[in-house]
Amino acid sequence: MRVLVSWLRDLVDVPVAIDRLAADLHMRGFEVASIEPWHGGEVDDAVIDLEITANRPDCLSVAGIAREVSVLYDVPLRLPRPPASPDRAPALPITIEAPALCPRYVGALAEVSVGTSPAWLVNRLAAAGIRAINTIVDVTNYVLVELGHPLHAFDFEKLAGGELRIRLARAGESVTTLDGQRRTLDPQMLVIADRDHAQAVAGIMGGHGSEVSLGTRVIALESAYFQPQSVRRTSKRLGLSTEASYRFERGADPDAPLRALLRTCQLLEQLGAGRLRPGVADVQPSTLEPRVVSLRPARVGVVTGLHVGPGAVDPAEFERILVGLGFAVDATGKEVWQVTVPTWRVDVTREVDLIEEIARSVGYDRLPSTFPALHAPPAPPDPRLERQRVARDVAVGAGFAECVTFSFVERRAALAFADEADLVQLANPLSEQFAVMRPSLLPGLVDVVSHNRRRERRDVRLFEIGARFTVRGGETRGLALVWTGAASPQHWSGTGRQADLFDLAGVSSALGERFGVDLVCDPADIPYLVSGRAAHLIMKRNGAADQSGTPETDATVVGVIGQLVASVAEARELPANEAVLVAEIDLDRLGADIDANPVVRVEPLPRHPSVVRDLSMLVAADLPAASVRGTIRSVAPPTLAEVQEFDRYQGRGIPEGFVSLSVRLTFRAADRTLTDTEVQDAVDALVAALADRHAARLR
Amino acid sequence: MVDAAAIARLRAAYSDELARAATAADVQALRDRYLGRKQGAVTALWREIAHASPEARPELGRLANDLKTHIDTTLSERRAALAPSKPSTPRLDLTLPARALARGSRHPLSALLERIEHIFARMGYEILDGPEAEDEYHNFEALNMPPEHPARDMQDTLYLAHPLATRSSHLATLLRTHTSPMQIRYMETAQRPVRIIAPGRVYRRDNLDVTHTPMFHQVEGLVVGEGITMGDLKSTLIGFLRQLFGEDRPVTFRPSFFPYTEPSADIFLGCTCRGAGCGVCKQTGWLEVLGSGMVHPAVFEAVGYDPERYTGFAFGAGIERLAMLLHGIDDIRLFYENDMRFLEQFPS
Ligand SMILES: [Zn+2]
Question: With a threshold of 0.90, does the pTM exceed it?
Answer without folding.
Answer: no
